[in-house]
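> call design_seq(struct)
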């Protein structure tokens, strides 16, 4: 179980919720505090409010911490400019049952295996990060905007992978892609100005009344899809 109890900082206000054996989508406008919350959940922002499997995440270190949670940012940062894709994935190959070649094939990026990480496109980098998450296979994996740099074909592929319950144990997805959030059917936590304004089922969040409450006339549901109303 992942639990955060009454967490406050310079952005977040009275954040409390629990996740047990389920996946979660975190939604909210720019600046709502989604990434700050993610960093608090995995202990990048130190705190005493987060527990995972009854362990204070900010007081858990080394292998014990890497088994509990993994945060995947929206952008790949490589400090070794000579690191190859295979070398990067070998560093992430911790607790999963998937082999490096299998992860590359799954994400359709086998052709990148011997390429330098610094020479990847933004979309390729994003797919590499997800391959690394599969190899890491922590109890909880936070994916921050996993489809933001992907073309439509790759977004659909990512959706299908995220639906696979045999890949990753518990997924927490931060996204602005409302249609992806709707189709995944994960529970939804919606944030606004550093506060939780909704925490409940996918079906309840995407009712017409809530869509209007949180997004006004900027989105609409058409043929069982959530679209931006331009």
């Amino acid at each position: 179980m992942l639990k955060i109890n009454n967490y406050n900082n310079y952005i977040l206000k009275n954040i409390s919720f629990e996740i047990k054996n389920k996946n979660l989508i975190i939604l909210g406008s720019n600046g709502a505090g989604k990434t700050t919350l993610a960093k608090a959940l995995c202990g990048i922002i130190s705190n005493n409010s987060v527990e995972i499997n009854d362990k204070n995440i900010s007081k858990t270190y080394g292998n014990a911490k890497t088994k509990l949670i993994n945060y995947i940012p929206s952008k790949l940062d490589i400090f070794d400019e000579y690191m190859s894709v295979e070398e990067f994935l070998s560093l992430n190959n911790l607790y999963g049952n998937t082999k490096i070649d299998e992860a590359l094939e799954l994400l359709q990026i086998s052709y990148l295996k011997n390429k330098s990480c610094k020479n990847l496109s933004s979309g390729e980098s994003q797919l590499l990060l997800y391959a690394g998450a599969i190899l890491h296979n922590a109890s909880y994996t936070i994916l921050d905007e996993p489809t933001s740099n992907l073309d439509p074909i790759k977004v659909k592929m990512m959706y299908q992978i995220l639906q696979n319950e045999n890949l990753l144990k518990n997924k927490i997805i931060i996204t602005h892609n409302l249609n992806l959030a709707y189709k995944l059917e994960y529970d939804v936590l919606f944030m606004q100005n550093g506060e939780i304004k909704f925490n409940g089922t996918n079906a309840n969040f995407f009712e017409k009344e809530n869509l209007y409450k949180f997004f006004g006339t900027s989105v609409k549901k058409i043929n069982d899809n959530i679209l931006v109303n331009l």
